[in-house]
Amino acid sequence: MKSSAKQGSLIVSTGSAVPDFTINNYQISQIVETSDEWILARTGISERRLLTDYNHSVIDLAVEASKQALEKIDMDPLKIDLIILATSSPNDLFGSASQLQAKIKAFNAVAFDLTAACSGFVIALVTASQFLQTGNYNNILIVGADALSKWTNWSDRSTCILFGDGAGAAILQSCSLQNNEILGFHLSTDGNYSDQLSLAYQNQYSPHPSLKLAQGSFNYIQMNGREVYKFAISKVPESILLCLNSLNLSADDVNWLLLHQANDRILKAVADKLSIGSDKIISNLNKYGNTSAASIPLVLDQALSENKISKGDIVVVSGFGAGLTWGTVVLRWMSD
Ligand code: COA
């Protein structure tokens, strides 16, 4: 954190929500040519949750996760100054954060969406901490929520095995600089590789013969799995080391690696490159798959409910994905 900061930031509560419907690897093998053995060996995923209910949307998941976080600390939603909703699968392209604001009755909060795919929560965390450091806001709700099942091609076995739906929320509060939890961050994008993982808009037709205007819609998720894998295992360790070094910390100081839950092999390869024991990896990939912007707050909420993280622990949080964008935040956990 720069010395110009007026105040620190602290994660004071978390919450999470997943849909009820579970689809396991065997059930997916009834849809595309694959097997439980193949999926488990290549990804570490056994099952994932899908938003199948016609009347429920990604915002309902975000609302549930947010309400949980508010209730845990008995916080009046009117105290929230800002809501940042990290999502790439909104209900409304103009932004869905305002729907969340209304549903949780956080009427004093300004609310906006942040689109950065699987790095969305990390970037939301950094963005929120900037508003807190300057002293402009005191209470910020950040939510990572995605329902990529809506944008998955269920005939494409290289992508449909990976993704699940979910939401995770965190409430950040201003605090004294001594209690600051967010020690530092490092964020990067390389847009030259944006076509390696995309959910792209495509022009299709002109709505009126006399109007030279193409209109279209969004495609399914397209991914070059091998390239994304190579990108993740080279850039994520680099980002973590840069961030740790800037704080005069080393990989030996890390108590927990809380990475975007994309693939078990990626998590292990990142830990190996940093010589961090796999017992320090926090993971729930097996049960939920890759829930995009939701994956980090979902697994954080779970780790906290299991009392895994203790006061003083150094927690390295890294997100990576479409963009290609990646980033790290180093936390010193301050709550008991
Ligand atoms: N079941 C069975 N076989 C499959 C399959 C599936 N679900 N998906 C692909 N295959 C096949 C391929 O067709 C290919 O067959 P071929 O050799 O006959 O051509 C073979 O398996 C190997 O394909 P490849 O794409 O090289 O597999 P992989 O070992 O790279 O694993 C991923 C594929 C997607 C699991 C892996 O690339 C990956 O996890 N990448 C990162 C993706 C990711 O995390 N994305 C999100 C980032 S936020």
From TrEMBL:
Q: What is the name of this protein?
A: Beta-ketoacyl-[acyl-carrier-protein] synthase III
Q: Which family does it belong to?
A: Belongs to the thiolase-like superfamily. FabH family.
InterPro entries tied to this protein: ACP_syn_III_C, ACP_syn_III_N, FabH, Thiolase-like
HAMAP family found in the cross-reference section:
FabH
Residue ranges of every copy of the Beta-ketoacyl-[acyl-carrier-protein] synthase III N-terminal domain listed in the record: 112-191
> In this protein, which residues make up the domain named Beta-ketoacyl-[acyl-carrier-protein] synthase III C-terminal?
245-333
* This protein's GO CC annotations: chloroplast
Q: Write the Enzyme Commission number(s) for this entry.
A: 2.3.1.180
Subunit note: Homodimer.
Entries under NCBIfam families matching the protein: fabH (TIGR00747), PRK09352.1 (NF006829)
Single Gene Ontology MF annotation: 3-oxoacyl-[acyl-carrier-protein] synthase activity
Q: Does the keyword Isomerase apply?
A: no
> What processes does the entry annotate via GO biological process terms?
fatty acid biosynthetic process
Q: What top-tier enzyme class does this entry carry?
A: transferase
Where is this gene product found?
A: Plastid, Chloroplast
Keyword flag Ribosomal protein: no
